[in-house]
Structures are given as C-alpha cells and as structure tokens.
Design goal:
With about 270 residues, the chain is mostly beta strands. About 10% of the residues lie in helices and about 35% in strands. Strands 9, 10, 11, 12, 13, 14, 15 and 16 form an eight-stranded antiparallel β-sheet that branches. The longest helix is centred in the first third of the chain and has 8 residues.
Length: about 270
C-alpha cells in the first residue's frame, strides 16, 4: 500500500477519475469509490444526439444512494471526496438510478447487482482513467471470466491491489448498515488477493475490477473475511474462508466480492465511456 496513493484517492480533485473517493451527500461519516465513467447505450440516433454530452459515474448502490430511504430526491447528490473523508466535499453529480436490492430471507429471489449511476455535472472535468491502471479498454462478459484469472483494482481505502478470481458463482449474504436485514446475492465473483494483503477494505465499494488487458471485469460491492460462510457452486458445496489456501499463502484478511460488469451494464443500459 502506497501512502501517497491513498492520500490521493481520499483527497479532493478538480478532475474526476475512477478509483477516488465519492459518495452520496446524505451518508454522513461514510465513504466509497468511483468505479468508472459510462454513457447511455442508446439505439435511437435522436436520443444519442440529445444525450451525447451526458456522462455517468458508476459505483455501488450503497455508496451512491441512501438505502434507508425508499425514494431518491434532490438531496441525492454525489460529493467528492466522500462525506466521511472531508466536510468540504463538493457536489459533482446527481443520482439517476439505483439497482433494486431485495432484503430478507427470500432465497428464491436472490440479488444480482448492487450498483448505482449518477449523471456528472456538465461543467465537471473528468478523465476516463484509473490510477495505476489507466484507461479501460472494453469489458469481459460474465461467461468469459475464468477461474484463476488475474485482476487488479484501485480503491479509496487500499489503493492499488492485485488479485485472482477464485469463484464466478459465489453465493453470499451481505449485511447493510442502512437496513436491518441481510441481502442474498448469487453468481458473484470472489477475488482473492495475490500479494498477502487485503484486496479490499471498507470504503473500496464501487471500485472497478480490471484484468491485465485493461478490460472491465466486475464492480466491488462487498468484502469477505475469514469467518464469512460462503457457498461456491463452481468450487465445492460449502467452505469457510479460514480453510481456503491459495498457493500455500498465509490466511488473508479480506477478499473482494464483485458483480459482473456485464450484468451492471445490462441493468442500466449503459456502455463504457471512451
């Protein structure tokens, strides 16, 4: 972990990039990460002409939205840096859409996506890149992501980290501080770190997971520690993370859990900017 990089990620920026701190203005004391930049995936040329200047920020739903409220309103502004990082964060975008999340014990209707998009103020400068990673060059569809493939991310809390895809069919119950009940997610990606440190920590939600060809793979929305009970249909029926050993490494503190980026893009009808 590079201290200068972390300070950079948590600071204020005149020009937005992926990987830096931002969150909903109503989330007092909390923080998250900007994933990347997207545009509407419109088939109508008339709509494309009308909305051609609209660019969207992508992050997790619990970063860009206040999940304790049923409806969004004019107060749902995205500030940079996050409320938990600075009292002087400034609005840079407005919340547009949030993926619905089902809470409670309905195992027949699991969640697939925890994501939200916000429209950047047209006066706001941005650069479509991520620190230490650069510009994103396309994406991998869910069915194209393979086990043991290498990946990387840059987030507000841990900065640049590298990992490996351990599962592409992870089931996990996620606890949200804004709600009293957990939410079940299925067919998620589990990313294990490859440098004997954490791949993610709190505040990294919203980070974009990228392969070594700079193709977007997933969107971080949760972490899993050694006592988390998980299920993998593609590894084995059930395992405890304390018993997982990857290449004989020591017990790792925190794994990353990510939505497939193709699922996220489909949910919102968006495409990569650039």
């Amino acid at each position: 972990m590079n201290a200068n990089e972390i300070d950079h990620a948590r600071g204020g920026h005149d020009v937005l990039t992926g990987g830096i701190s931002a969150a909903n203005a109503n989330l007092t004391g909390e923080f998250g990460t900007i994933g990347y930049f997207f545009r509407p995936n419109l088939f109508s040329r008339a709509k494309q002409a009308f909305l051609k200047n609209d660019v969207y920020l992508l992050s997790s739903a619990h970063v860009f939205a206040d999940l304790s409220r049923a409806e969004k309103d004019d107060s749902d502004l995205i500030i940079q840096p996050s409320p938990g990082d600075s009292s002087s964060g400034r609005p840079v975008a407005e919340l547009v859409d949030v993926s619905p999340i089902e809470f409670g014990g309905d195992v027949e209707n699991p969640n697939c996506v925890d994501a939200a998009i916000a429209r950047i103020d047209r006066r706001q400068a941005y650069s479509a890149e991520i620190p230490r990673i650069g510009a994103i060059r396309g994406f991998l569809r869910k069915e194209s992501v393979t086990l043991r493939s290498d990946c990387q991310k840059f987030g507000r809390t841990t900065g640049y980290t590298r990992g490996r895809v351990f599962s592409i069919h992870l089931s996990i119950w996620v606890k949200y501080s804004a709600r009293r009940t957990d939410a079940l997610f299925k067919d998620q990606f589990l990313i294990v770190p490859t440098d004997r440190s954490s791949f993610v920590k709190g505040g990294d939600s919203g980070s974009l997971v990228v392969d070594d060809q700079n193709r977007a793979v997933g969107l971080i929305f949760a972490g899993a520690k050694e006592k988390t009970s998980l299920q993998f249909s593609d590894v084995e029926d059930a395992v405890d993370l304390a018993n997982i050993i990857i290449n004989q490494t020591q017990k790792i503190e925190s794994y990353g859990v990510a939505n497939s980026i193709s699922d996220v893009m489909k949910a919102f009808g968006i495409k990569l900017d650039g």
